[in-house]
Each structure stands twice: as structure tokens, then as C-alpha cells.
Amino acid sequence: MRNKEAMKMSIKKVVIVIIVLLSILAITLFWRGSHNENDASILRLYGNIDIREAQLTFNSSEHIAKINVQEGDSVKKGQLLAHLHTELLEAQLAEAEAALLAQKQVVNKLEAGNRKEDILKAQAELDAARARAKAALDSYRRKSALLKKRLSSPDDVENARSLADAADAQMAAAIQTLALLKAGPRQEDIAQARALLMAREAGVALARQRLEDTNLYAPADGVIRNRILEVGDMASPQTPVLTLTFVNPVWVRAYAPETKLGKLAPGMSVDVTTDSFPDKVYKGWIGFISPTAEFTPKNVETPELRTRLVYQVRVYTCNAQNELRLGMPATVIIPLNQATPESGYTTPDCSKQGSH
After folding, report:
1. What is the three-class DSSP state of 268?
2. Domain 54-84+214-242 belongs to what topology?
3. What's the CA angle centered on 53, arms 63 and 55, to 5 degrees?
4. pLDDT tens, residue by residue, 199-223
5. How does strand 269-274 pair with strand 282-295?
6. List of E strands, 31-70
7. What letter does residue 57 receive in the DSSP assignment?
8. pTM, whole model, 2 decimals?
9. What is the CA radius of gyration of the chain?
10. Maximum separation of any 2 CA atoms in the chain, in Å
11. Whole-number percent of the chain with pLDDT over 90
């Protein structure tokens, strides 16, 4: 009987010791938490992860030929995501290139001037015209002399004179033709041909750009969130095809009390923690502080009263492992004893940032 009572007393003592130890541990943890929470050198903000998105559209109107990605796929900047049918645009490009080639030959011809053979031909025609003019003039003179001796008629003399005048006109025309060939094309004609050539080049560039607009590329690294249209659908610049989520960096939408606003500045370094990964600290920086005050949103938990005015703070953090998701609660820890960044600070490069 005594052994049983002794055993009961021992058990009670052990329970009492355990209760005392747990109480001491709870008090210690509470004290530490209160101490950290009230640390004047650290500001804790609470918010949610927010992610930027882009609605991707084609810069052309045509039926979709192929989509290369699915929802949830990670993509890199410049990656081809989808493209349209191009048969009509390819034909238009071929037509523009042919017109450009033809105009290039026109310009080359004008700039090269007349061929030597053409000039020699004109010179020969001028020599022949001179010979005919001389022969016609000699014939007129002979018939004029015979008319005085009554050996020719006035009609013959008049006809000979007309032939001589016509031969002189043909010789003058040949002289001008030779002069034009030697002078070459007019500068105005060359300038007009060059201007038309520039128009043809612009037409080819436009046709190539229209053909390139049938491709849809990723504007940045990210994840495909929604696939809105499918193969065969009619695409246009007003109709989104894919929704691209930018996952690195992401940002935390948090709210700072007015009493702490003077200690914050864009570019300040911060630490971000989440409940999903409690052992990880994500390096971040303050990217934006709202210039206007607002009431604390009901879904944001802060130690201050909800009725106090706060200012939205946008905290960017790198997300190389894609662990931070849209809407995830996050805690932002801002050391207030750091130096205030100078204006025009450089945004940190997420490729050189990491979590630990």
C-alpha cells in the first residue's frame, strides 16, 4: 500500500516538473517573440505574394496554325509560343521582292548611262544624215543652175529644195540624239527612280514584318497560366491567345503604418519569409511606396489597429525556384538601421540573387 502511494507521489512530482518546464518554455518563447516584435530596429510587414501577368496577342489577324506550349509550361524570353497561317503573306512578300528587283535594275540602268555602242550608232546615223543632207543640197544647187539654162523645170528645183531642207532637219535631229546619248539620263529621272526604289524596299520590309508578326514570342521568362485560344481559332491584336505569368521577380503587397513611413525608402534591402517554407529567407528590396494613404485592407494582419491609415509598399523578391505563388501570405522583415539608398538606385539582378 505504501509502495502504491509512493509511486503516485512520484508521478505527481514528475507531472508538476513537466508543467513547470513547459510554462517556463512558453514564457521564454513569448518573451522572445514580444522582444523581436517590439525591436525598434526591425519593421515587420504582412502581406500576400502578387504576380504580374501579360495577355499575349498576335500583331496580325489570321487563323492559328500551331501553339507550342501548354498551361503550366515554363518559357524563356524570345521563345516561339505560337504562329499563324502564312501562305497569303508569303505570296505578298514574293511579289514585293520581285518589284524591288525590277526597280533595282531600272536604277542601275539609269546610273550606268548609255552604252558605248548606242553612242557609236548615233554617231554613224549622224554621219549618214550629214551625207544625205550634203547630197540633197548638191542636187538642189545643180537643178537651180540648170533652171537658168532652161534644162530643168521649176517643180524639179522646188522638190530638190524640199529634199535638202528635210535632210538638214534629219541631220539636226541626229546631232541632238547624239548629244542626248552622250549626256546620259537626266538627274531628275535618276532621283525619281531611286525614290521608287526606296518605296519598293519599304514595301519588302513591310511584307517581311507582317510575316514576322505571325509569330508570337515570349516577352520575358515566365509560366503559361492560361491557353485562351486554340489551333484554328481566328487571332487578332484585340484577342489574347495566352496568359503569361512573370514569376521572377514577384512582389509582396504589404502595408506600412504612417509612423514608420519616414524610415522606408525604395531600394532598401528586406527579408521575406512564408509559412510554406519557414526555413527559407528570400532576399528582396523595396520597389515602390504609395504616395497616398488608405485604410488597412481587412485581409492584411498587422499589429496596429485596422482603422489607422497605412501606405502600400511593394516589396520585390527573387523567385528562381518558383516557390512563391500568387496569394501566398508572406512576412516582410525590414532592418531600419540600414543606409538609405541614393535616388536612381539600380534594381537588383535576380539572376545573382538567391534564397538561403
Report:
1. coil
2. OB fold (Dihydrolipoamide Acetyltransferase, E2P) (2.40.50)
3. 20
4. 999 999 999 999 999 999 999 989 9
5. antiparallel
6. 42-56, 62-67
7. -
8. 0.64
9. 46
10. 187
11. 34
Cell of 82: 505560337
Burial class (CB in 10 A: 0-12, 13-18, 19+), 281: middle
**Alpha carbon distance 48, 68 (integer Å):** 32
Tell me if residue 83 falls in helix, strand or coil.
strand
Strand arrangement of the beta sheet that strand 215-217 belongs to: 215-217, 80-84, 62-67, 234-235
CA 102 to chain centre: 33
- The Cα 61–Cα 186 span in angstroms is 45
Q: Map out the domains of the chain as residue ranges.
A: 39-52+247-352, 54-84+214-242, 92-209
Place of cell 552622250: 182
pLDDT in tens, 29-84: 444 544 444 556 889 999 999 888 999 999 999 999 999 999 999 999 999 999 99
Query: If you count them, how many residues does the chain have?
Result: 356
CA distance 54 to 224: 10
The Cα-based distances of 98 to 77, 87, 105, 222, 252 in angstroms read 35, 17, 11, 41, 56
Output the nine-digit C-alpha cell for 87: 501562305
What is the distance between the alpha carbons of residues 288 and 267, in angstroms, rounded to a whole number? 9
Residue type, 286: I
Q: Which three cell numbers stand for residue 245?
A: 505569368
CATH (residue range 39-52+247-352):
2.40.30.170
Give the strand pairing for 222-227 and 80-84.
Answer: unpaired
Secondary element (H or E) of residue 200? helix 187-212
* Residue 183, CA distances (Å) to 100, 111, 173, 334 in order: 27, 12, 15, 82
